[in-house]
Each structure stands twice: as C-alpha cells, then as structure tokens.
Amino acid sequence: MKAESNLEKVLEAGHFAFTGEVGPPRGANVEAVKKKAGFLKGLVDSVNITDNQTAMVRMSSWAASMFVMQEGLEPNYQMVCRDRNRLAMQADILGAYAHGIRNILCLSGDHQQFGDHPQAKGVFDIDSMQLIGMVKKMRDEGKFLGGADIDTPPKLFIGAAANPFADPFEWRVHRLAKKVKAGADFVQTQCIYNMDKMREWIRRANDMGLTEKVYILAGVTPMKSLGMARYMKAKVPGMDVPDNVINRLKGVEKKKQADEGIKMACEQIEEFKEMKGVAGVHLMAIEWEHKVPEIAELAKVLPRPKV
C-alpha cells in the first residue's frame, strides 16, 4: 500500500469505488462545509474537496478538508497548478499530510479568465503532469523537487484528472498514458455524457494496458434540468453533451426533468459497473449534495465496503 487511505484500500480490494465531491463555500462559513459533508457521510469512499474551482475564490481546499475529516469523511485534497509555485505546493502537501490527508488530486486548474478575478496572474510554475511526478518523488524517494531529503515524506495516494472528450480525441488516451507514467495511482474523469466516446476511450486504454496500471473512476454529474444541459453543452469548456441527452430531457415535462437526470445518471453507473477498465464512479452532484443519498440508493452502491 502506498498511502493506506480508505480509497486506496477499497480499490486494492477490488470493490467498485464510489466517491463524492464538496465545493468549499465562498466565505469562512464552516457550517456550510459541515452541512454538505453531512449528506455524504457513510455513502462515499472519499470526497473530493475542490480548489478554487472555476477560478472562483473559495475557502482553501486543505482547510475544508480538515473540517470534512472532523465530520468522519476521508478527503481527496485537490490541488491546482494555477495558484501556487512549487515552493508553496510542496509546503501545502507536507502540511496536508501532517494533518492526516492521504489522497491528493493533481490538476492544472481552470484558467483564471473564467473566474471572478480575470486579472489574476496564473502561476503554472509546473503543470499537472509535473505535479503528479513531484508528489511521487516526495512520496517514493523522500526528496523535494530540488533534490533535498524530506524529514518524514508524505505518503499520499496520487490522483489525476482525465478528459476523454477534448480534441483531438485520438490523443486523449496518450495523455492518460503520460499521467500514468508520471505516477498517477487513480484517475477521475471529466463529467461523462457522451457514452459512445467514453466506451471507445476506455477500450483504447484497455488495449494499451493502462487500466492495469491505474484505477479509472468515471465522472458522473446528474442533469438538474434541460437548461443545465443546454448550458453545459454551450458554455462549459471541455464538456461534451450530445443531442440525445438534450432530447431526452426535452421529452419530459419541466417538473420531472430533475428526476430524469438522476435516472440517466443511475443508468450510467449501472453500465460503468460492468465496463471493463472502470474501477468506480466519481459523483459530482454540483450544489446538489442533498441528492447524493437518493442517487446512491437508486444506483445500488450502498452499503459502502469496510476494508
């Protein structure tokens, strides 16, 4: 075992993993974090704590991770390359580990032009691939990126993100291969709506032997409405929402669209359970955390294994 986190234990034991996500508040409201965490308690193997997602200022990921741990959940601490240089990143990684964090998700981060401080300077001292390698070096070699020894290296389960849908599609699986080579232990994908492309991407990953080296968790975000589907299709970078998803939501009356979105998400989860190369699902119920208990029940992923 590399980190002995609960998520690592669940995956190593061969269980179908189920992870959730909590976005920290845009303020110092601790109760808001605890309220969101409360909906997920006992229902997920780990919970992602986002890091200034969509380039909007929020409570820091490591601080919110502390509060989530106090509520009995295991955090998956997200870190983006946009906001820190390598000195700050390594310092935060040491501090997070010292406080008991055992999972980290390494990301580039949404560009600052999309957020509420478009004039901010993007740091990007290192990219996500280099961040993965840096955490692995710290963990496995006990050394900082500069080469000096670390007194008590951080033993973290290293995660990466993957977008199977960005162009050119043919390159996507090779980018996954680079992240695996850099040291990723698990990968969580972008929200999946285009199942045809997902099936092809995972087939290629299987053919290249990548799914034998890394755990793939498929990203699922239930649609709340037809409006949300149209917005994600037209406005959210990197999102691939095919017309069949739009048309299915269009085919039900407005007050039933949320239920239809949950039904579609559960159908995806059922398929992912049987899909070769997929080791679990990452549920991103954006500002819909109170729906996670219902979705987990309908998706038949409960109870969660005790490992």
Which spans of ≥5 residues are poorly predicted at pLDDT below 50? none
Number of strands: 8
Large-scale geometry: globular
The main sheet comes to:
8 strands, parallel, barrel
Alpha carbon gyration radius: 19 Å
Distance between the termini: 13 Å
What's the rounded overall pLDDT mean?
97
The DSSP helix count reads 11
Beta percentage is 5-15%
Report the order of strands and helices. HEHEHEHEHEHEHEHHHEH
Secondary-structure-based class equals alpha/beta
Strand order of the largest sheet: 1-2-3-4-5-6-7-8
Considering DSSP H and I runs of 4 or more, what fraction of the residues is helical? 40-55%
Written description of the protein model:
This protein has 11 helices and 8 strands. It is an alpha/beta fold. The longest helix has 18 residues, at 257-274. The model has no long low-confidence stretch (mean pLDDT 97).
